[in-house]
Amino acid sequence: xxxxxxxxxxxxxxxxxxxxLALQEREPILEPELPIIDTHHHLxxxxxHTYLLDELLADLNTGHNIVATVFEECRSMYRADGPAELRPxxxxxxxxxxxxxxxxxxxxxxxxAQGIVGYADLTLGDRVEPVxxxxxxxxxxxxxxxxxxAGYDPDPTIGNSRPDMQPHLYERADFRAGLGxxxxxxxxxxxxxxxxxxxxxxxxxxxxxxxxxCLCHVGGVLGYGAYAGRRDEVFAAWRGxxxxxxxxxxxxxxxxxxxxxxxxxxxxxRPAPPSAAEWAxxxxxxxxxxxxxxxxxxxxxxxxxxVDKMGTGYAALWNAFKRITAAASAAEKAxxxxxxxRRLYQLD
Amino acid sequence: MPYGGNDWLAQTEEATLEPELPICDPHHHFWDFRTARLPYQRYLxxxxxxxxxxGHNVRSTVFVEARAMYRADGPPELRPxxxxxxxxxxxxxxxSGLYGPCRAAAAIVGHADLKLGDRVEPVxxxxxxxxxNRFRGIRHIVTWNADPRVESREREGVLSTPEFRAGARVxxxxxxxxxxxxxxxxxxxxxxxxxxxxELTIVMNHLGGLNRTGPFAGRDDEVMPAWRSGMAALxxxxxxxxxxxxxxxxxxxxxxxxxDKPVGSEELAMQVAPLLSFCIDAFxxxxxxxxxxxxVDKVSFSHHxxxxxxxxxxxxxxxxxxxxxxxxxAARAYRIxx
Lengths: 348, 338
Hints:
CATH superfamily of chain A: Metal-dependent hydrolases
CATH class of chain A: Alpha Beta
Order of helices and strands of chain B: HEHEHEHEHEHEHEHEHH
Mean pLDDT of chain A: 96
Oligomer: heterodimer
Strand order of the largest sheet of chain A: 1-4-5-6-7-8-9-10
Order of helices and strands of chain A: HEEEHEHEHEHEHEHEHEHH
Number of domains of chain A: 1
């Protein structure tokens, strides 16, 4: 068998392998009552892989108490024509439609895409204003923020956020002007970059203190390419940057999305997916460090599905998180799994 | 084999006639979990795209409300906003180009209750906000008949009430159109309504609500003259446009849905020709548009066979008249720039 999964390289996204996922060790759902807001998932039809409402709901309804979700931009359903800067509005229209289907009650009680994090090119500076206004209109009350990714690494095996990505996006004056516009609307910036770039996020958070920034995927720890075999060194560098970033009160962290870039486990080479216990062991140092540095009130879990479905089923993913937080207080858990998300993205 | 399914329809396959002719299909629905009598419980973007991508040049479509995806909560008058939000999402997916060149739901007709009178204005504003770029009007079905075999959707005489007319005036003032359907004995009431609100563009659905079943079965000698005189009077109202279709619904009495093998376009065109010719003579092609009424009419024929039938039927009209019937009247009425 020569599946897409077995050809997998870290940093690339491939369609999940359902037959292989079915081999993952099953265990009872931990804390099945705990309300969860999944703060980061996608909806797409991409390279023949369909992940729309049916597919998402099949994952959400695997035993954990998911009460709502936040859609994260992924270049889905952009308008085929019209002004380039407005094409991402098509994605928000599309997702608001799926949210409306969910809100009809016909698909169960979960509020799918109760929040939408879309895309707008913040390097437009002040000219991003009409784009943000169009996004807010298209979202019908659900548009909560913008993700503008900055992932860049000089190692070509890493894979940047865009083919034409330049280093230090977050240092650019035009980007910061655009972020000011975003903040004026009370919208969140979802930031995404790799751990060697965290100094840029720190500088950004200080330069635009009125902006609320949520750093995706625990700060983008890299574990492959030039970073392979340097786990302790990478961890120390990442921890140092995160400690500095945690001093910026306007920064939140999404916990999840560690499976692919982090490369803690070479999951694709396995005959069966790693168990929840194995994932928990691999991720525990990062999760515990982030919660210790930022506090539960500034941390929120995310599934990053279907990207992280490359290596784990949805039920096992949340069991892994729950294993890590087993000793947390009830108040901390309430924040980590739902409360922080509710405040950050102003859900309800 | 149950009528209306794709397997049943596949028994009648035809070559596409005039595949270049541009078409705007100005009337179809989207829904899910539709269990009542229809064989199409799910009709979303994939299902529509499959139907309109069989060879005809369907460039755009118009969604018409069907009580789908209403909000589960909130003020009752605003619950239909959920339907427009939902369809706006499918339209956006289509506008990405991922599903081919047809722009599905390029225009959206939602629902608001015109009986709210002046209070319909915030509902219409909410519908517009849900789709700032595609929302074009509402449909309010006013079908009523004393006979319980006719599915009455409104109370008797609603078209004459002050509140309904006040709501209609708000609609017109906001630059929106009214799609509607009645049962054909109500056509004189519809004429009076159209005259009372001349500033409103009214799009009469489905050949004016002809019904040849239930209380009207076997009474063509009374039914057809009543329908013809009603339609002739309605055609005198310049603010009324007409959708030519809906005859696949069993109430039109053709019984195609009961056949072992679905009807072909030649026979279909021949059977509906008297109805269509009468309407086009009365309204003129520039006020008429061919519609699919899918998936409701899918119980009787495929989308592909239906448009072959429209092409056969209209072969004798001029190129300009056919452009109006297949595309331009709809594109103008619903302001579709494609």
